[in-house]
Automatic annotation (TrEMBL):
The keyword ATP-binding does not apply. Keywords: Cobalamin biosynthesis, Glycosyltransferase, Transferase. This is Nicotinate-nucleotide--dimethylbenzimidazole phosphoribosyltransferase. It catalyses: 5,6-dimethylbenzimidazole + nicotinate beta-D-ribonucleotide = alpha-ribazole 5'-phosphate + nicotinate + H(+). Pfam families: DBI_PRT. Coiled coil: none annotated. Catalyzes the synthesis of alpha-ribazole-5'-phosphate from nicotinate mononucleotide (NAMN) and 5,6-dimethylbenzimidazole (DMB). The keyword DNA-binding does not apply. One of its GO terms (biological process) is cobalamin biosynthetic process. Pathway: Nucleoside biosynthesis; alpha-ribazole biosynthesis; alpha-ribazole from 5,6-dimethylbenzimidazole: step 1/2. Its EC number is 2.4.2.21. Belongs to the CobT family.
Amino acid sequence: MSLETPFADALQRKIDLKTKPPGSLGRIEALAAQIGRVQSSLTPRMARCQLTIFAADHGIAEEGVSAFPREVTRQMVLNFLGGGAAANVFARSVGVGLQVVDAGIAGAPMEVEGLIDRRVGAGTMSFLNGPAMSAAQCAQALGAGRALGAEGDWDAVAFGEMGIGNTATAAALGHKLTGAGLEQLVGRGTGLDDAALNHKRAVLERATARTGELAPAQALAEYGGFEIAMMAGAMQGAAAAGRIVIVDGFIATAAALAATRLEPTCRGAMVFAHRSQERGHAVLLEALKARPLLELELRLGEGTGALLAWPLLKAAAAMLNEMASFEDAGVARQS
């Protein structure tokens, strides 16, 4: 987000006058400045964060691109709602609320307490021979996401995902949005062996060859997932509401790329949590000119990496708000 130079100068001056050598807190200082810019405040609040997990199924999974059947999406949603997944454990450990959204799980609607129903359909179509979703469905998912991203009184939001086949979707979408080769983007996902990885790459080569250059909205409809489109909309909505958006791994970064290609101003609110082990993540981060905070060899998704980055944002805001200045502490500055 762009702000007038006087405010940006005042924000940087406040950081520089803390009792430390200039720049000695490295990227924590950059985080503090970003938080201040997003909230347009010299005393920003960074106390409340929520994780939203978007769940949906992918027609491309029918082509054998995942090691797990798509029934696992529904089973994992029940695990999230029961509090037993890694995302639940991490969220509790760092004091973050968690909610789960049905963006388009295969089968009949899940009538489960606590599940937020925003389903666009019972999973996307296979994009091997046609578009994953219609333009209207894509717009519906984006709109539902924007509304969810704008809700609440959060200082920061994190978004996770669940959807068997979604690394294939993210790879195809990333290919169309960046022009990077599929060999750079297609990874093992849920743990494919070499033969299955080669099959996945061959399927995606056939699928992406059926279209040429696409506008961002067209690429999202042709090769996206309901949860990816809804997450992209949520990132846009949260950014417009003046919230920090903590971006998780490969799938969430594909959503962030789509969000910024559709609405470039939302990029300023994004903090990239980590670099995952999924092959294509580094390519998408480079396309976004993003430097992730952590490198922990994660490849789970669910928003787990975003949750682990949340304490760093809290620390950055605390530094800006609570750390003494040289004048306050009576400490001499360097000459």
